[in-house]
Amino acid sequence: MRRLPVVVSVLTLALGLAACGGDDDKGSGGTAAAPTNCTNKIVNANAKKVLVWAWYPNMAKVVDNFNNTHTDIQVCWTNAGQGQPQYAKFQTAISAKKGAPDVVMLETDQLVGFEIQDALVDLAPFGANDVKKNFAEGSWKDVTQGDAVYAIPIDGGPMAMIYRTDVFEKYGITTPPKTWAEYAEAAAKVKAAGGPVFGDFASNVPAVTTALMQQKGAQPFQYVLSDKQNITVKLDDQATKDVLNYWADLSKKGLVGKEDQFTTDYVSGMVGGKYATYISAAWAPGYLTGAGVGAGDSKGKFAVAPLPQWDVNNPVSVNWGGSTFAVTSQSADKAAAAKVAMELYADPASLEDGWKTQTIFPLNQGVLTSDEFLNAKVDFFSGQTANKDIYAPAAKAYKGAVYSPFTVYYYAQLQEQIVKLNAGETTGDQAATDLHNKIVEYAKTQGFTVK
């Protein structure tokens, strides 16, 4: 399906002192790739053409919806790769100062790394704030820097706990765990009775661990684009240590698995009941369905509950994933590109197709608050109204996050620490300290002043 784990080979970004102290007026400049060799039909040949890189499975339909309803602009769409492969191509174009598209799909945690290179355009002068009302506070925060708007949200990943109803019933888990303490207790109960592992502490999804750290109150980074040179790194705090210790303890006791997610073996485990829960995002049902989970013997055996909390009296909603449309500084017609970024995948037909096919979890409030969306009975969850009961409230409660300019490197280092935790080679406290020190050292080598 559409969502893959972060590939944590380090994508070399041209940060350093040059990027931190660059000429803001110039931006990355350059020349965008010509909108040719489109994979879609151009309906109005005389209209302006805007080249878009995007990877959603239903983009062909979304682009056709746009082109059929616009006479002034036409989208020329190509799939340049999903996630990291596309980012690598975009980075190459930035470095070469040529070859970027006009509009590029970027996940929210990748935006700052490209913003700092002046590779993205502030959309506020092109009317971006006119569509601000279409999005919740948290999703809008993820795409802004002060008054500047660097992308338009499309979908998000409010997190929840998917669980196997058959496993819960067999081992007497009558109520989904509401807290992480209850989660650990249920995991121990199932194991003691000879049941499967309760979840998974996978190293290849560091974004999940980061979100759970943030849920505990951690703020790994503080960074604003208006102060490019300075960054605050805080990864050796108690909240981070608590979360890493918690999952390392579950791993050590054999209460959760250590397998990489999104692999054939992992999917087979989901189908076969090897995992009692799956801590994931609102897009997960679509991915799981596409991977063959919820069919055959596993059909009708999944439900979803709110993400367990550290403090039920002070619940915190966190996010995994979510994509945006950004305009690149190489675009020759930034006004036309901005219109595409704001209106592509924003029309009712495209949004409806996106959520009904579970291609996206939309962030557009027109969908999130609609009766049809809220009352939809999700087949994967045996008719549960998951949007109304779980995901929409989580999306509304999400307050946004602060990402660093070097997300890929940070994820790589966090992955390394999770591998060590699963192997029993370190503790959560030591892992947090080592992670903090490595990120601070890296930030300094890139020309940042670390506070």
UniProtKB/TrEMBL annotation:
Signal sequence: where?
A: 1-19
The keyword Glycoprotein is assigned to this record: no
InterPro entries in alphabetical order: Bact_solute-bd_prot1, SBP
Q: Carries keyword DNA-binding?
A: no
Query: From which domain of life does this come?
Result: Bacteria
Keyword annotations for this protein? Signal
Name of the protein described by the UniProt record: Sugar ABC transporter substrate-binding protein
Tell me what organism the protein belongs to.
Paractinoplanes rishiriensis
